[in-house]
């Protein structure tokens, strides 16, 4: 335990960081490892691998991902911006390379193979994209003559175009939703709300008309006809588990879910640990979002406010999409459950997101002064 009277980088970090945030992120990583034991052996055996192949890899990803999260949490807001700028530029270049030399999986080019590892650049693009857009919106609010909003729109258009080219409509919808929420919080004019709403609806209709795989997923969701084996099996697993589950290792339906260790790990959790456990899991994600928005509400600095809100919404909306697909509330879409699903790129990128959140929500002298000023103004106490 670090004493309050100690002085140094680690002691200052420990007493200024939001420890509830930190504990919650680590808790989710632990739950992810536990569920990997439940969900991945059947998949590994079908592929002719060692039963605990994915469990071992999941555990191996955790240490560097946790190191990244802790390391980034030491950064100042300015250093967060600079780190995000470098990360975004690198990720966008890699997303261009993916279109030419990427590994094709299930009709999509989303991964680069480097040194024997499969890296999904779009995962690392997301937290960096949110931070840079927050900075652009904040700069425009601070100095209206700076075309920050226009640059943010252009950045979103370029990023969305690269995602659609892969194609990855799910990630496009995810960053579009977060970007729109940030633009709204930054004071988006009503005209822009109407224009962007029309453009979004037009884009979705265009994707339905021009992209067969999008039309197929939407049609299967609406009609229930066609290849719905995976989502139907996931639904059966949830129903089979009941309120309290069958117990660890006792799941039966999970054994035939093709992507039980990634996109449909929530269904495995429901079968073995029950609906009550899944409700607790949803509550944990809800806590992260609400606590982050609470931090953002109290924040006077526009960049910190928009960045924290955007990053927690990124986690919340991604988890909502994953859980919605498992519950057959949304069309099937390959998207991981943050810090729970198997995947090195996903886990590391989510830990980057968590590290940025921890860094931006740390209590600093100027931040504490702002909070005291806000409290006095709300309470009607005269300034000192």
TrEMBL record:
Catalysis: reaction(s): [GlcNAc-(1->4)-Mur2Ac(oyl-L-Ala-gamma-D-Glu-L-Lys-D-Ala-D-Ala)](n)-di-trans,octa-cis-undecaprenyl diphosphate + beta-D-GlcNAc-(1->4)-Mur2Ac(oyl-L-Ala-gamma-D-Glu-L-Lys-D-Ala-D-Ala)-di-trans,octa-cis-undecaprenyl diphosphate = [GlcNAc-(1->4)-Mur2Ac(oyl-L-Ala-gamma-D-Glu-L-Lys-D-Ala-D-Ala)](n+1)-di-trans,octa-cis-undecaprenyl diphosphate + di-trans,octa-cis-undecaprenyl diphosphate + H(+)
Gene Ontology terms describing biological process: cell division; cell wall organization; peptidoglycan biosynthetic process; regulation of cell shape
Keywords, alphabetical: Cell cycle, Cell division, Cell membrane, Cell shape, Cell wall biogenesis/degradation, Glycosyltransferase, Membrane, Peptidoglycan synthesis, Transferase, Transmembrane, Transmembrane helix
EC numbers: 2.4.99.28
Cell cycle in keyword set: yes
Entry membrane topology: Multi-pass membrane protein
Name of the protein in its database record: Probable peptidoglycan glycosyltransferase FtsW
Gene: ftsW
